[in-house]
Amino acid sequence: MPGLTGGPEGTPARPTTRTQCQNPEFGTTLPGAGAFDCKMICMKKYRVWAVSLAMAAGSATALSGAKPDPEKGKQVFEQCSICHNADSDEKKMGPGLKGLFKKDKMANGKKPTEAVVRAQIDQGGNGMPPYKDLLSDQEKDDLIAYLKTI
Question: Which parts of the chain sit beneath pLDDT 70?
Answer without folding.
Answer: 1-66
